[in-house]
Design goal:
The chain is an alpha/beta fold and about 375 residues long. Helices cover about 30% and strands about 25% of the residues. The strands form 3 sheets. The protein has a 7-stranded mixed beta sheet. The chain has a 7-stranded mixed beta sheet with strand order 5-4-3-6-7-8-9. A 5-stranded mixed beta sheet has the order 10-14-13-11-12.
C-alpha cells in the first residue's frame, strides 16, 4: 500500500481470532494496467497476471479477459483515485497529459508507471516514494525483463529516503514540506538526529542518523526527525512523524450514528493533544458486532475494529467501572478495557469520556501497532 489513502481500494469484512472478532480493511485489486497499442496486448496480459490487475484496452482491439474503453481521459478520471498504482503502456506524453488534471499532492497521489510497448524501459513517473511508484516500476521490470528507470535523488544516490522509511513503518507524515530538508541533509552526508522514544522507525543506519534523548537536543534550524503520538510540538527543519500506537476503546447505545461517535473521538483526541493519525486500532464489546455506527466509524478512520467477549473485557482492571454497563453488557468496562487490551500491555492515556450516547477511552502501546 502507499502513504496516500489506502481506503481507495478497500472493502470491509470480518474474521475470527481466538480472542476476538475483527473487522478489518482488506485490499482488493491494487493496480490497473492500460494498454494503447495492439502489439502490446501480450505484454499487458503478462503485467495483468503478474500484478493481479485488471487490463484496459481500446474497444477497437480489446481481447477476452480485458475491459474496453473509448476515451482514456474519461477512464482515468474514473479510476485515478480508486487504485494504488497505474501502469500505462503508452508514450510518456500521452500519460502526462492524461493524468495532469488529477495530480493533487505527493502524499495523496497514487503511483504512476509508464513503459514502452516492448517493456524495455519502465519509468517511475509519479509518486515514486510515498505512492510506491519506484517499487512498482521495479516489480514491472521483473515481469517484463526490462529496465526500471528511477529518477528520485535519494534512490539514484543510493541513500535512504526518510519518507520511504516512514511509509514502510506505517508512520504518518505531519510535515510533508520538511521531507526535502531531511532528505537533502542525508544526500549531503550530514548526520540527522532522531527522537523516537518507542523505536518506531526501527534500526537506523548510524552513519546517517543519531538518536537523541529529548526534542530539546535538536539544534535550531537543523534538520531532524521527531516520532511521537502527540500533536503540537513543531520546529522548523524537523520532520514530525506520527506513530500508530494509540488504541481506542469505544462503547455506544444501540443505533448511535457514526457522526456522534466520531464527534466524541475527535474531541477526546484533540482535547488531550493526541494525533488523530496515531490511532492504529479500535475496539468494543462483541455484542456490538453489528452496530453500524461503530462499523462506519472504523471505516472512516481506516482502522481495524476488534470485538471482545464480555469475559475478556471483565478480566481487565480499569479505573472507572460501571455497574450499569455490567448489568447490560456483562462487564463493568467496555471502552477502557478494550483500549487496554488493544494496547498489548500499554498504558491508559485517557480514562473513559462520555457524551450522551457514546463512551471513548484511549490507551497507548509500548510499541508501534502497524496498520
Amino acid at each position: 500500500m502507499n502513504g496516500t489513502d489506502s481506503c481507495r481500494t478497500a472493502r470491509f469484512c470480518s474474521r475470527k481470532t481466538n480472542s476476538a472478532s475483527v473487522c478489518y480493511i482488506e485490499n482488493m485489486s491494487r493496480y490497473i494496467v492500460y494498454v494503447l497499442s495492439k502489439s502490446a496486448l501480450p505484454l499487458a496480459r503478462s503485467l495483468g497476471q503478474g500484478l493481479d490487475a485488471p487490463i484496459y484496452a481500446p474497444n477497437r482491439f480489446v481481447k477476452s479477459g480485458m475491459q474496453g474503453f473509448d476515451s482514456l481521459r474519461e477512464l482515468v478520471a474514473a479510476t485515478f483515485g480508486r487504485f494504488d498504482g497505474h501502469v500505462f503502456i503508452a508514450a510518456a506524453g500521452i500519460v502526462v497529459r492524461t493524468i495532469a488534471a488529477h495530480i493533487a499532492a505527493k502524499d495523496r497521489d497514487p503511483a504512476v508507471v509508464n513503459m514502452d510497448p516492448e517493456g524495455r524501459f519502465v519509468i517511475s513517473l509519479l509518486s515514486g516514494h510515498l505512492g510506491g511508484a519506484n517499487d512498482l516500476a521495479r516489480k514491472c521490470a521483473e515481469i517484463t525483463g526490462g529496465q526500471a528507470v528511477i529518477t528520485t535523488a535519494t534512490d539514484t544516490a543510493g541513500v535512504v529516503s526518510v519518507d520511504v522509511l516512514a511509509r514502510d513503518r506505517g508512520l504518518h507524515l505531519a510535515d510533508l514540506d520538511e521531507v526535502r530538508n531531511v532528505n537533502a541533509a542525508l544526500l549531503e552526508g550530514r548526520m540527522v538526529p532522531v527522537y523516537d522514544p518507542l523505536g518506531c522507525l526501527g534500526e537506523l543506519d548510524p552513519v546517517s542518523f543519531s538518536m537523541v534523548e529529548s526534542p530539546g537536543d535538536f539544534k535550531p534550524g537543523d534538520p531532524g526527525v521527531w516520532v511521537h503520538w502527540m500533536e503540537g510540538w513543531s520546529r522548523p527543519g524537523v520532520l514530525r512523524l506520527h506513530a500508530p500506537v494509540l488504541s481506542l476503546g469505544v462503547g455506544c447505545r444501540r443505533g448511535t450514528p457514526m457522526e456522534e461517535v466520531l464527534d466524541l473521538i475527535h474531541h477526546v483526541l484533540d482535547e488531550n493533544g493526541l494525533a488523530r493519525k496515531s490511532v492504529a486500532v479500535m475496539g468494543t464489546a462483541d455484542i456490538k458486532h453489528d452496530e453500524e455506527g461503530l462499523l462506519d466509524t472504523a471505516r472512516e478512520l481506516n482502522v481495524p475494529l476488534e470485538f471482545f467477549e464480555a469475559e475478556e473485557l471483565a478480566s481487565v482492571s480499569t479505573p472507572t467501572p460501571s455497574s450499569m454497563v455490567e448489568q447490560y453488557v456483562g462487564t463493568a468496562s467496555v471502552s477502557e478495557a478494550a483500549a487496554l487490551l488493544l494496547s498489548r500491555g500499554g498504558e491508559l492515556l485517557v480514562a473513559k469520556q462520555k457524551s450522551e450516547r457514546v463512551t471513548v477511552a484511549v490507551a497507548r502501546s509500548n510499541a508501534c501497532l502497524l496498520r
